[in-house]
Design goal:
This protein is of the alpha/beta class and about 475 residues long. The chain contains 12 helices and 23 strands. Helices cover about 25% and strands about 20% of the residues. About 40% of the residues are buried.
């Protein structure tokens, strides 16, 4: 079970673009790129995988062992050069290609040793575990990885050496897949103190539907934020919304994505950066720095994904500058942060009718599609007819709940005024009278129309049971037709 630890001071948000270490042409990450204030961002070097023989030996993309990368790529020297500029390095294990170490190592101890070789070689305080493809669906390797990482992190911390662990997982607009959630839950159950979950906001396919790439990515972040809160609750720890946003990262694939027709352009990047800053997303990345350039004239088919260019005309802009705006921290500043439960987050917030813009949810009431209510100081909208289903029921799949979270009740909000009509607009409802379909009446100033023949059924009951009531409230537009 997850063990809560002492908290640290809030850390700054950080940006680190991915660099494909073995891609050709080689990307000179060591040169850095200072912004107007002189800040040089971190990089995420990728990917460490098993060797080509499938043994528990860490390599760079199966092409180079650690010593070979030092000799043939000057990797150790280039890392030190970047660090001299004040930037840091994160190393990513896994990725979409080759064999992730946990799928070939035979024990948690052997896997932990493989990770440790890389950590000590490059003096790392933050690692990234990119779990996708076959590895994501492999329950055995996921359990082995969780146990190995928990032990490794505990040993490092006991020795006074911090180790922040990020999971990088695929996502769709409705959030993490079931396999992705299993990976997160397994890590929490093992005792690993996750620094966060980084979402690959890319390659949505049919799940994107008609959304723009920004809208799909924002939806994916919101959905995963909700899921992550539930998973932490299930692990025995309550976190505030702010803390949960800080435990999320985002990695868009810039320009042309692997899915035809999906293009994440510079406008998407600017909106995504603004969204990330507004919500306090802890980490921003991108795939990849190698690709952050306009393709040259000798690359005519820009719909075919390139390792060395984005596939769109970037002009004099680059994605790294746009996505890193406001992300002036470094991964090292968050490496020794620990997760602590927030008692206030566990306690449901009291709703006040005087400060709620919509009616407070009632278990006995029925709600039609599109109806908005307030529950625990949040506004929800009904996706379909519902009665008795908690708006904040902790379901991990969005389609398991009839409610969509819109956002919190804002300071200074008051109840929406009820629509009423002047006396005499329609006859006052009388319990002794009968009414035909289409007849209109007034009850306590609110206008109603009969849906079918009725006698003795109070219009006021339409609010609590709209489906079974013979009455439906009228809108201002409905009444305007009669008063023109």
């Amino acid at each position: 079970m997850y063990e809560a630890r002492a908290s640290e001071e809030p850390t700054s948000q950080w940006f680190a673009g991915y660099v494909d270490v073995t891609a050709t042409p080689s990307y000179a990450f060591e040169e850095g790129s200072a912004d107007a204030e002189g800040h040089v961002s971190d990089v995420v070097l990728s990917f460490i995988v098993a060797d080509e023989d499938g043994t528990c030996t860490p390599t760079w993309g199966t092409y180079y062992g650690l010593d070979e990368a030092g000799q043939e790529l000057d990797l150790d020297r280039r890392i030190e050069r970047l660090r001299e500029q004040g930037a840091g390095v994160v190393v990513s294990f896994g990725g979409a290609m080759n064999q992730e170490l946990a799928t070939v190592c035979e024990s948690p101890e052997e896997l932990a040793d493989a990770y440790l070789q890389v950590i000590e070689r490059y003096d790392l305080d933050t690692i990234d575990l990119d779990i996708e493809g076959p590895a994501l669906e492999d329950a055995t390797s996921n359990a082995l990885r969780a146990e190995a990482v928990a032990k490794l992190q505990a040993d490092r911390r006991a020795a006074g050496k911090p180790l922040a662990v990020w999971l990088t997982l695929p996502v769709i607009p409705t959030g993490l897949t079931a396999d992705g959630r299993e990976v997160v839950s397994g890590m929490l159950e093992s005792g690993t103190d996750l620094a966060g979950v980084n979402l690959m906001t890319m390659n949505y396919g049919e799940a994107r539907e008609s959304r723009s790439m920004f809208d799909a990515s924002a939806a994916a972040m919101r959905s995963t934020h909700r899921q992550l809160g539930i998973m932490y609750e299930q692990a025995g720890i309550s976190l505030s919304d702010t803390a949960l946003w800080g435990k999320l990262g985002a990695t868009p694939m810039v320009g042309q994505n692997d899915v035809p027709g999906e293009i994440f352009d510079l406008k998407d990047a600017a909106r995504f950066n603004e969204f990330a800053e507004e919500n306090g997303i802890g980490r921003m990345s991108m795939w990849s720095l190698n690709r952050d350039a306009t393709c040259g004239s000798n690359y005519p088919d820009v719909t075919r994904v390139s390792d060395a260019c984005s596939g769109i005309d970037q002009g004099d802009q680059n994605f790294a500058e746009v996505l890193s705006e406001g992300y002036d921290g470094h991964a090292a500043e968050a490496a020794d942060a620990s997760t602590e439960p927030d008692p206030a987050a566990a306690a449901p917030k009291e709703d006040d009718p005087e400060t709620s813009p919509y009616p407070i949810w009632n278990e006995e009431s029925a709600y039609l599609e599109g109806t908005k209510i307030v529950w625990h100081r949040n506004v929800y909208e009904a996706k379909w007819w519902t009665r008795g289903e908690l708006p904040d029921n902790p379901v991990l799949e969005a389609w398991d709940t009839p409610w969509e979270l819109i956002g919190p009740v804002l300071p200074g909000e008051t109840p929406a005024p009820e629509f009423t009509v002047a006396k005499g607009t329609y006859p006052e409802w009388k319990g002794s009278a009968s009414y035909d379909k289409g007849d209109r009446v007034v009850s306590d100033g609110t206008p109603y129309e009969a849906k079918w023949w009725t006698e003795g059924d109070s219009p006021d009951a339409a609010i609590a049971d709209p489906d079974n009531s013979p009455w439906v409230p009228l809108s201002a537009e409905d009444v305007e037709e009669d008063t023109r």
